[in-house]
Hints:
- The structure holds two protein chains of two kinds.
- By secondary structure, chain A is mostly beta strands.
- Chain A has helices spanning 25-32, 68-77, and strands at residues 14-21, 42-50, 54-62, 82-87, 90-96, 102-104, 125-129, 132-135, 141-142.
- Chain B is globular.
- Chain B is built from ten helices and nine strands.
- Chain B is α/β, with parallel strands linked by helices.
Amino acid sequence: MTDTELRVSKIQNGTVIDHVTAGEALHVLGLLGIDGTEGTTMSLGMNVPSDRLGRKDVVKVEGRELSDSEAEVLSLIAPEATINIIRDYEVVDKRRVERPEEVGGVLVCPNRECITNAGEPVETTFAVLEDGLRCEYCGEIVREDITAHLRD
Amino acid sequence: MRHDHLLTAKQLSRADIETVLDRAAAFDDDPTAAGERHADELLALCFFEPSTRTKMSFETAAKRLGGDVVDMGSVESSSVKKGESLADTVRVVEGYADGVVLRHPKQGAAKMASEHVDVPVVNAGDGAGHHPSQTLLDLYTIREHAGLDDISIGIMGDLKYGRTVHSLAHALTNFDVRQHFVSPESLRLPRSVRYDLHEAGAQVREHEDLDAVLPNLDVLYVTRIQRERFPDEDEYEEVAGEYSITPETLDAAKDDLAVMHPLPRVDEIAAAVDETDNATYFEQAHNGVPVRMALLDLLLDDD
């Protein structure tokens, strides 16, 4: 990579999410709950040339390691993404995201009549379909804009 | 059938369905056949929405099996009024009874309830979701009149919110049945049900007009179009009129067409149809007892 393509400083501790589907980086930030107001140091590359993907996005977040459930949802919006966990400037863990069979707890069902939206002690669970998600309680199918349904 | 709960019709295989229907037929022939197999067993009836047929037929079925029921009563007179969660309610009730029959306005309520208790839960209607025990009695009725293979069934009315429709459509994918869905555009099957029918490879057609398909049908399953689904009274009246059945409508149908309805009906089947040989809906309602006897017998069986 040359200076003219992308120049961002290394991070000391945190996560580098590479090979994000081009154009999805802002959704990844949404998934992480980062909107810039919380003071997190982060850098973003969008539509960066990539041998594997043609174009890709890259997200670097200082002081934040991705949880397993966040990685699961990440796999839905960026199925080719790789997650690099950085500690003291070194990559201590590098893995591809894996598409899970279901995701629990991180999404809200868009169906207002679903029992998961009724104040009951139940976490949402969505089955992962080829082209979307499906609430395991009411059967509602979510295909578009998955990040819009992230739990606050 | 080996299930802990009955939550949706999707969970039922053809073998499961036939097991219930065969046992129901035995109880239908001889209501005393169950003897006292379930003496001392109690079934909890938790109905968070009004019900006549479903509740009474479960109660009758439990008693004909030698058991009895405990009834939560109306929501207005229960702790729900004080803000108790459904999860807490069923956890308390499982201490009183050997099984729970639950009707609730929220979709997925029965599934959630089943995760909080160790006794069998029967979904007796969860909002616009499912109503699988109704489906079993519908299938029993269809089997009696037309068989369950190589038939054409028309399902008409409110397909979007009609839980009996959703469950029936799922269950029919186990059989060689051509399903014709007849409704106004605004009340077509929801995306989730269409997805399942497609996945199951079901033979499905959608129509806005009954006339086009009526002559080919062996069974016509009519459901109520509810007034509150329409923005104004005029639109409701217009649509409701188009999707109603009179003796004249049936002139174009096969002589042995079975007209079914989960009831209650309002105007969608004229009273004069009751006098025709096609009227099957009261028999259908009566079938609720042997079918629910069979269902409870299987679910409550500890062997």
